[in-house]
From TrEMBL:
CDD domains: homeodomain. PROSITE patterns: CUT (PS51042), HOMEOBOX_2 (PS50071). Residues 1-72, 371-398, 512-541 are annotated as: Disordered. This is One cut domain family member. It comes from Pleuronectes platessa (European plaice).
DNA sequence: TGCCAGTCAATAGC
DNA sequence: GCTATTGACTGGCA
């Protein structure tokens, strides 16, 4: 049925909405829109025909919106079944600060946390293998450490230009860590230098592995070969039918035939692949990558937040969504970059993966200030005192004397205990962090709107009938539900997107009726694994 | 101006 | 403490 303004009203004669209106599961809402529910809950005689109609519409849409708790938990769409309990207004949780692209951080992290990393790669294999529980270390770096980061930034000429930190600059770190770390620069692939156009054809299995060869000096190539033997092969075969003989990779690596890392760094190879060679279309099997990443994060007990921040420069929620609901490569646009970073990380030798994870440069002060200002525009409640969740260090730079960096370190517990200095710094930074926490607590967070049960049910019901209601209809809906027009608009926008984003929705035709589950839960039983339908999938109207 | 992709970040639930 | 969900924001595009 095509939902129109007329038939919304036409269905208002149905009265089963009474159950809905008196639902015990309609959560008291702190939102301004909660008055709508109150209206219909306590003064049914006064409720508008529009709301009644919407409620009836839901009841008539297959019984998916019963107020029965079991129905809510077991069959409803997540967006409907949520919020049976009161909404917590606690500020206990903090969120990652705005993120930025990461520089190749492994060298720095190794300096502090991985003193052995430059000796023998195999040691890292031992250290990083197995189930490793992570821990966090807040570090305040001294200037030597910062200086050592200089050559890292050099790979980010656009966003992190740092004078005197060009490619050739040698830092105490680079000189001290030897060839391995000098050759680690391609970790910039995790950062903006890895930004490629959506049509870039770079990550063929060949180029991908060759670029990794460039990360290691010849002395480490044996290790690389071993590492790739464990991980690279599967990734090759994961690349949407682009099979490449693994031995050819290893061969080229061992012989150091192609150093695409340099090509990438200097902007030549990024969009071209191997000059003169067969340039295969870059196509990452996002589903496979997501599964691999998920497995690796579990394997090493790496929190999503850490991986998202360190490797992807994304938030935890974004990563979670990408891992659970990867879009097909062909449907990705700029989002391909995020999967490229995952893909690249998967190709790293294990010790290098861990190394990259161990340190995060959260945000340079200027960038953070810019975003804070931007955020203040968007969220007036967010003041310029926005802080990061990590320690802040001042980075000496002739061009940017006020340049500050926040450094957050994550270390596998097997590494960390020996470094007393780190502990000292960590405690100092912990104190600092506590201070900031107090500052933060004085800044009211923007409270997130959570639809009331009625609002959500109504919106979902309408969406099921009409995924793209007219502007006029959205206005009516917003008025009747006591929501902002932009909120209603956003709802339909998000719903359309999250419906069709999911793999299975289009390919398998799974509908909303069969895949409703408890929200916010790790309900794997109702979660359709990647490659089929997502549990939060809407059906197509 | 509206739509969309990508993402943030609040927060519920485990 | 961690992950999943989801309302909202930004920038690009037609």
């Amino acid at each position: 049925m095509e939902l129109t303004m007329e038939n919304i009203h036409s269905v208002s004669s149905h009265s089963q909405v009474g159950d809905l209106m008196s639902s015990h599961h309609a959560r008291p809402s702190p939102s301004p829109s909660s008055n709508t529910r109150n209206l219909v809950s306590h003064a049914p005689g006064a409720r508008s025909a529009m709301v009644t109609g919407m409620g009836s519409l839901m009841d008539g849409s297959g019984g998916d919106y019963r107020t029965d708790p079991s129905g809510l938990s077991g069959h409803l769409h997540p967006s409907i079944s949520m919020c049976e309990n009161g909404m917590s207004l606690s500020n206990t949780y903090t969120t990652l600060t705005p993120l930025q692209h990461l520089p190749p951080i492994s060298t720095v992290s190794d300096k502090f946390h991985h003193p052995h990393s430059h000796h023998h790669a195999a040691a890292h294999q031992r250290l990083s293998a197995g189930n490793v529980s992570g821990s966090f270390t807040l570090m305040r770096e001294d200037h030597r450490g910062l200086a050592s980061m200089g050559n890292l930034y050099s790979h980010y000429p656009k966003e992190m230009s740092v004078s005197g930190m060009g490619h050739g600059s040698l830092s105490p770190l680079s000189s001290g860590l030897g060839s391995l770390h000098n050759s680690q620069q391609p970790l910039s692939a995790y950062g903006p230098s890895a930004h490629l156009s959506a049509e870039t054809k770079m990550i063929s299995p060949v180029t991908g592995f060759e670029s990794h060869a460039s990360m290691l000096s010849r002395s480490d190539q044996d290790h690389l070969a071993r590492s790739l033997g464990g991980h690279g092969h599967s990734m090759i075969s994961n690349l949407n039918g682009m099979h490449h003989h693994p031995h050819s990779h290893l061969h080229s690596q061992v012989n150091g035939a192609v150093m695409l890392g340099d090509r990438d760094r200097h902007g030549h190879g990024a969009g071209q692949g191997v000059a003169g060679s067969n340039v295969q279309a870059e196509e990452i099997n996002t589903k496979e990558v997501a599964q691999r990443i998920t497995a690796e994060l579990k394997r090493y007990s790496i929190p999503q937040a850490i991986f998202a921040q360190r490797i992807l420069s994304r938030s935890q929620g974004t990563l979670s969504d990408l891992l659970r609901n990867p879009k097909p490569w062909s449907k990705l646009k700029s989002g391909r970059e995020t999967f490229r970073r995952m893909w690249k990380w998967l190709q790293e030798p294990e010790f290098q993966r861990m190394s990259a994870l161990r340190l995060a440069v959260v945000r340079p002060g200027r960038e953070r200030a810019r975003l804070t200002a931007h955020k203040a525009r968007s969220h007036p409640s967010v003041q310029a005192s926005t802080t990061t969740s990590s320690s802040t260090v001042r980075r000496p730079s002739a061009n940017s004397p006020g340049f500050t960096w926040s450094v957050l370190l994550w270390r596998p517990p097997s590494h960390g205990a020996a470094l007393g200095l780190m502990e000292e710094n960590r405690s100092a930074c912990k104190r600092k962090e506590e201070d900031r926490g107090r500052e933060r607590s004085q800044v009211p967070k923007k409270q997130r709107l959570v639809f009331t049960d009625l609002q959500r049910r109504t919106l979902v019901a309408i969406f099921r009938e009409n995924r793209r209601p007219s502007k006029e209809m959205q206005i009516t809906i917003s008025q009747q539900l006591g929501l902002e027009l932009t909120t209603v608009s956003n709802f339909f926008m998000n719903s359309r997107r999250r419906c069709t984003d999911r793999w299975g929705t289009e390919e398998l035709g799974h509908g909303m009726h069969g895949h409703m589950h408890t929200p916010h839960g790790n309900n794997n039983n109702s979660q359709i694994q990647a490659g089929t339908a997502s549990a939060s999938t809407f059906s197509k109207a």
